[in-house]
Amino acid sequence: MERSFGVCWDRVAPGAWTKADEDAVANHKCVLYVLGPPMMPDTADTISAAALLLVEELIKAGTTAIKGESAGAHGLTRWRQLVYQCGDALKSDDDFALSRACRLAFAKRPLESAKYIESVGFHLVGLPEVYVAKTLGTDLEKAALIDEVADEMKQRGVQAVVRDRKATLSFESKYKEDDFKFDPCGIVYIDQR
């Protein structure tokens, strides 16, 4: 479990986890796996929001550590922030803010490959993954660009963003269709700013 969390800790949000969160993982006594239903782009935000509200209930019940399988891991304080953002978005009927809170909660970025810094898990909010060329800045700058592109796709649509950014949308994936990391929405490749 320590290794799994170690690979997945959120390295983008400042203070996303603490030593106490690491200790909770190291000293855990049991594990609970929750399987969600298959997600389609038009229902992904709703299902992810329900999952984030489940996170809130698990924390209230005494859970000491939480991570999504295809996603990053956060400390309990960060999970509470994301739950609050989700709840606030639901109260104000802000679909964009809801999707963003769920994406930040359940997607992982930046992951490194030979040519790109990548996201994984954007299908959990009905978006294609975003792969940014390694040459486009520091890892944190590329992670910020991934988030910027994802926000734009949610607001303006995938095709508009692909066109305006002179990006490429591909449906070829290194993951098999039955892999939980497979994104049926595709991958947007960003090779220039």
Describe this structure in words.
This protein is an alpha+beta fold and 193 residues long. It folds into two domains: 2-105, no CATH class; 107-190, no CATH class. It has helices at 2-8, 19-26, 44-60, 76-91, 95-106, 139-156, 158-164, and strands spanning 66-67, 73-74, 108-112, 116-120, 129-133, 168-170, 187-190. It is globular, with a radius of gyration of 16 Å. The termini are far apart.
Overall number of domains = 2
Question: Span from first to last CA?
Answer: 38 Å
Tell me, briefly, the overall form.
globular
The count of β-strands is 7
Biggest sheet character: 5 strands, mixed
* Spatial extent as radius of gyration: 16 Å
* Helix run count: 7
- Give the rounded overall mean pLDDT: 93
Strand content: 5-15%
Outline the low-pLDDT stretches.
none
Q: Order of helices and strands, N to C?
A: HHHEEHHEEEHHEE
Short description:
With 193 residues, the chain is an alpha+beta fold. It has two domains: 2-105, no CATH class; 107-190, no CATH class.
Provide key terms for this protein.
193 residues, alpha+beta, 5-stranded mixed sheet, two-stranded antiparallel ribbon, 44% helix, globular
Write the layout of secondary structure elements.
Blueprint: H1 2-8, H2 19-26, H3 44-60, E1 66-67, E2 73-74, H4 76-91, H5 95-106, E3 108-112, E4 116-120, E5 129-133, H6 139-156, H7 158-164, E6 168-170, E7 187-190
Parallel strand pairs: 5-7
Antiparallel strand pairs: 1-2, 3-4, 4-5, 6-7
Helix pairs in contact: 3-4, 3-5, 4-5, 6-7
